[in-house]
Specification:
Elements: H1 3-14, H2 18-32, H3 39-55, H4 60-72, H5 80-93, H6 95-100, H7 102-114, H8 142-147, H9 150-171, H10 174-177, H11 181-194, H12 199-215, H13 218-227, H14 230-246
Helix pairs in contact: 1-3, 2-3, 2-4, 3-5, 4-5, 4-7, 5-7, 5-9, 9-12, 11-12, 11-14
């Protein structure tokens, strides 16, 4: 039986017992976070959580359990889609609960944005590593290697397009997220300061970050500019300049 069949069957059995199941799956996630070779189980866990989000009436605590499990499971190409769907489902159909737990929701969003996106089933990118990150400079020459693996870059961009859709959905709730979206932007510029992105990956990722700049409170943005260290501040200035010149809607024709 395929994972999808198992997930659907178990998901159907969980109706009426969701409060117990979400807590149980969270404990599984805690164990997965310290185990090796856990990608397959991580995918199954995320698929089950997604089914529960769709099929069960959920309390705030149950949603917290589900989001908490996202933070414990490694982000791979296999787990990423279900993690995205969980966050998307939460914001679409449990939006009032999300408004009560925005810090947790944003932590989950940052988790799937910045963690590993390539799992062990891919060929090694160099002699010692079987994982890749969005940010590719930890090993000299990684960018050259990745540029020769268009399927890897395509997969990364596909994940970032899902992030873009999630950030677009977040941007429809400007009042609730305007004062906190900037913290995701701050994390982004800090990462970019430390790591160089592949051009195609950066182009896709910047488009997603612009969605958050669109709703960020201008006073919080000004405060962010004053607290960043010099190197990160320059990255932020460049990002905001490009956003203002090429993306920001001004209302002028």
């Amino acid at each position: 039986m395929h994972n999808k069949d198992i997930t659907g069957t178990l998901g159907a059995l969980f109706i009426g017992h969701c409060s117990h199941v979400t807590g149980y799956l969270t404990s599984i996630a805690q164990q997965l976070s310290v185990l090796e070779g856990r990608n397959c189980m991580g995918k199954l866990l995320c698929d089950l959580q997604h089914q529960i989000m769709i099929m069960c009436p959920l309390t705030k605590q149950m949603i917290l359990n589900i989001l908490g499990s996202i933070l414990l499971v490694p982000v791979t190409m296999e787990t990423f889609p279900s993690m995205y769907e969980i966050l998307n489902e939460a914001l679409l159909n449990h939006v009032n609960t999300v408004f009560d737990i925005i810090p947790v929701f944003l932590n989950c969003s940052k988790h799937i944005l910045y963690m590993n996106l390539i799992n062990d089933s891919h060929a090694p990118l160099n002699g010692t590593s079987t994982c890749s990150r969005i940010y590719i400079t930890d090993e000299e020459g990684d960018q050259d290697v990745l540029s020769q693996k268009p399927n890897v870059t395509t997969d990364l961009i596909g994940c970032i397009h899902m992030i873009d859709r999630l950030f677009t959905l977040i941007s429809t709730h400007k009042e609730e997220f305007s004062k906190v979206a900037v913290y995701v932007v701050a994390d982004y510029v800090d990462h970019v300061h430390q790591h160089t992105l592949l051009p195609a990956v950066k182009k896709a990722l910047v488009s997603a970050v612009y969605k958050l700049l669109d709703i960020s409170d201008k006073h919080v943005l000004a405060q962010l500019h004053t607290v960043l260290n010099q190197g990160v501040k320059e990255v932020f200035k460049g990002l905001y300049s490009d956003y203002s010149n090429f993306y920001k809607y001004t209302g002028r024709v």
